[in-house]
Amino acid sequence: MTARRESPLGDDWIPTHQCNTELRMEILSDLPFFRPLAQEAISRINRQFVERGYEAGDFIYMAGRKAQRLFVVADGYVKLMRHTLRGKDVMLDILAQGEFFGSIASANSDSYPETAQAQTPVCTLSISSSAFRAILEEHPTTALKVMDTMAARLQEAQEMVRQLSAYSVEQRIAHVLLRLGNKAGEDREMGRLIRLPLSRSDLASLAGTTPATTSRVMSAWQEQEVIQSGRKWIAIQDQAFLSSLE
Amino acid sequence: MTARRESPLGDDWIPTHQCNTELRMEILSDLPFFRPLAQEAISRINRQFVERGYEAGDFIYMAGRKAQRLFVVADGYVKLMRHTLRGKDVMLDILAQGEFFGSIASANSDSYPETAQAQTPVCTLSISSSAFRAILEEHPTTALKVMDTMAARLQEAQEMVRQLSAYSVEQRIAHVLLRLGNKAGEDREMGRLIRLPLSRSDLASLAGTTPATTSRVMSAWQEQEVIQSGRKWIAIQDQAFLSSLE
DNA sequence: CGCGATATTGACCTGAGTCAATATACGTGG
DNA sequence: CCACGTATATTGACTCAGGTCAATATCGCG
Question: Which helix (H) or strand (E) covers residue B71, if one does?
């Protein structure tokens, strides 16, 4: 029934398991919270970060483990998940370059409440929580920036709560696609292309539903030419339509 | 059918629309993030806070308004809500003495994303966001403490997301009651008493369900002597049972 | 004591979950 | 570069938790 579609994935998918060393400074100084610092301070901070590459699917840390490091995504995409007893995972977020995760507060719960897994090949920079706290004590404006980011994340989580409480599955999937589009989309002739290997099951767990339902909703949208998708990509053709659902 | 129950509400319900002025210092210096500061610093900070009383039901601020103040609950309970188009509110949290709300970050979104309403008579202390940020720049350890609190809130919101995605209504209501018990419960012979005027509709919006369903679930639990409740109080008799549902 | 707001309960309905059979996309090796 | 095999996606049939609507009962206030 569905017409043959050309995959828009080029062969310019360069897995970067290893961070390009020259990029480290660039990435760190581009972080919203380090940006205002002097180059010299950043290079001192840079020395405290450790880099590490992961294959797609590798676990960066697991829920319940001792939480003692803060990570920054240098390249690739990382997914954060919570598990439930009966193996039903909930994906909380998917993080792109420049976003941080892991433990800031060595204080409160000293174990990671979520699992972090590489969704694509990933390179991270990481630092011990205590070293990071020392940096924040030394640079109060940086601490304020970090707080701003956390406030934004909290808003987003609360927005998710609202959606799960009050919106239909269709509305939630629309919201997830729009959000992914903003985070990882590239504008092309065919619409906004999201080049991420997200299975129906991944999307389902982001939207709080099941793979089968996700598939049904997305098939209907393909019929209506709202979106197009393959197994490792999604293109949003009619953004306005998705936005209008909310 | 239900046996006549004695209300456990004494007449010691003292509405404190106005903060007791002597309590201000005590409340502020008891805040987890000011606690380590010298008495002298706290008293300087104290002078920057403004106090204000509200009747139950009063709005402290509404979603969408310009966000420029940070509030601390000095007395009473405050509920935070998000609204949806079709008037279906979602209660994000209910805050007790010593918890803060409002805007920390003057930076990102400059309007409140949620509405804050007095659930009981309430007294707040508030400060402009920018003054608060100035305090944080001056006292970096305080900033770290605030970050810890924010991290804990974020965890809680993400936990809520997980529950809404993966748990049944019954499990979620159990969780809400347990959480309220921890936050506002007093241990009595009858069990843990929550003396808060929460309607079925309030509970429903905390658990992401409807008043009718909440009523059904709670009626069943009353039959089984797991809880008891009146219109302005709930007592948890069998905490273990509720915990076991998760 | 009586009234209005809130809660309870029943009857009914439907969105979305489950399970399972089939089809399709993409990576691999020939 | 094509063909094949496997993991993933699609789709249908069925079920049911929980939503909706509405009638009735209760609480606690004035």
Answer: strand B69-75
CB contact under 8 A, B84 and A147: no
Percentage of residues of chain A with pLDDT beyond 70: 90
3-state secondary structure of B56: coil
Q: Hey, are the CB atoms on B143 and A147 less than 8 Å from each other?
A: yes
CA distance A54 to A17: 6
Average pLDDT, chain A: 89
Among A56-60, A74-78, B2-6, B39-43, the minimum mean pLDDT is found in B2-6
Nearest to A80, CA basis, from A50, A58, A101, A65: A101
Q: In this structure, is the dihedral angle defined by the CA atoms of residues B108, B112, B114 and B119, taken in order, positive or negative?
A: positive
pLDDT of B86 reads: 74
Distance CA B160, CA B190 (A): 29
Look up residue A31 and give its DSSP letter.
Answer: S
Tokens matching residue A82: 């919570």
Given this model, what pLDDT does residue B107 score?
A: 59
CB pairs under 8 A between A and B: 135
Evaluate if residue B108 carries a pLDDT over 70.
no
Is residue A174 within 8 A of residue A238, CB to CB? The reply is no
Residue from the list A92, A154, A208 with its beta carbon closest to the beta carbon of B164: A208
pLDDT of residue A12: 46
CA of A143 vs chain B CAs: smallest distance (Å): 7
User: CA A207 to CA A204: how far, in whole Å?
Assistant: 5
Rg (CA), chain B: 19
For every residue of B98-156, DSSP letters joined together read: T-EEE-S-SSS--B-SSEEEESSSEEEEEEEHHHHHHHHHH-HHHHHHHHHHHHHHHHH
**Are A98 and A72 in contact, with CB atoms under 8 Å apart?**
yes
Rounded Cα distance, A121 and B102, in Å: 39
One-letter amino acid identity for A3?
Answer: A
**How does DSSP assign B154-194, residue by residue?**
HHHHHHHHHHHHHS-HHHHHHHHHHHHHHHHEEEETTEEEE
Distance, in Å, from the CA atom of A70 to the CA atom of A224, rounded to the nearest integer, reads 43
DSSP conformational letter for A238: -
The model's pLDDT over B140-160, given as tens digits with 9 standing for 90+, comes to 999 999 999 999 999 999 999
Specify the DSSP class assigned to residue A93. E
The residues of A between 48 and 87 with beta carbon within 7 Å of nucleic strand D are none
CA quadruple A29, A31, A33, A35: dihedral positive or negative? positive
